Amino acid sequence: MSEVKVNKISPRSGTDVTLGDSGDTFTIPAGATINNQGTATNFGATGSASWTTTVKTSTFTAVAGEGYFVNTTGGAVTVNLPAGVAGAVVAVKDYAGTFDTNGLTLVQNGSDKIGGSTNNKLLSTEGIAATLIFIDSTQGWLVTDDGLQSTAGPVLYSVDFLVVAGGASGAAGYYAGGGGAGGYRTSTQSVSAGNTITVTVGDGGATATSGAQGNDGSNSQISGTGLTTITSTGGGGGGANGVDSDNGRSGGSGGGAATSGSASGGSGNTPATTPSQGNNGGKNASPSPNGISGGGGGASGLGSDSSGGNSGAGGAGTANSITGSSVTYAGGGGGGGSTVGGASPANGGAGGAGGGGAGGTLNASGTAATANTGGGGGGSATTGSGGAGGSGVVILSMPLANFSGTTTGSPTEADDGTTKILTFTGTGSYTT
Questions:
Q1: What is the C-alpha to C-alpha distance for residues 98 and 417, in angstroms, rounded to an integer?
Q2: Mean pLDDT over each residue of the chain, to the nearest integer
């Protein structure tokens, strides 16, 4: 074996010196030290890093080959990773044991990946020390420390949900109660990248004819891995003369009752939720020769009972500003006003604020509820048809910075520069 002893190696020309050829191995014996006083690249494949002793307390950009002590006592910290080069290494350590309270977010450079994903990652385990090595374009940065891959979990962010079911139609014929509004529910939940939120939007109850009860609306729902499923129940149909003792049907909000003094409006908030998703329908409080009926319940108000020869109005809906503007949803349908025995015709009840349809007067049909409000349709008068219920709607609101997923079902997308709004008027999904 030959041995060369020199004090310095310099390039003969230019600025580069190459040691050996591809496939050669250079061995550093035990006890030897490499003292780097310049910049060394691509030495991170061993998983080692040179630790800096200046503790980081705010967002910073990491340099390949360095390790950092990070103190999140004062709040969460973001680390911007360097451009990925095979073998590059970055290490971090929870300095104060507070990552479980204020996490450390790792942000990849450009299209680089972390653990095979282009989404940011969160370190949220108290006392964690994690070494990341850039492997290749498929996996990007990987945590090499034993047992720590699972700690580099996805960043959680909050999504606000509005879930409104389809409203019911009003009843048809004499003494026709107004349709109940669809159930109205809201929720705020944490989601993480890669999860799929499945959205179901309920239809409004179809138009009722020939002395029939109003048709119930259909349920709206959100569900998905890691989510608490939120189901809003379709509104209950308006009660019809001679059907089920003239009672209104139960649902998210209940339908109004027909003319019988013993009849009751349908029960709202069925099945029960907390907070309540809707209210009871109204009844005929003062039977008379006039054909009067109760209004359907709404999200925030009971359906009105008939009064003074007039049918009851639909219950009021609830205003919500999830889209950035205040919109009222889930108003009940007004009861229909007929005439019997030559008496003066009763007036149909007004539709409740939030898309509820008005009840018809004399021979008029009930007014259909407004689409995508979950409003109840108005009851008919004498020979008319019950107004159709309004279809439901599901709306998602999230920070614009976190929106990077895909959708199905063609929701309407909007943003105000800080918040992303997805409005679903039909079944679809959002994959975060």
A1: 32
A2: 87
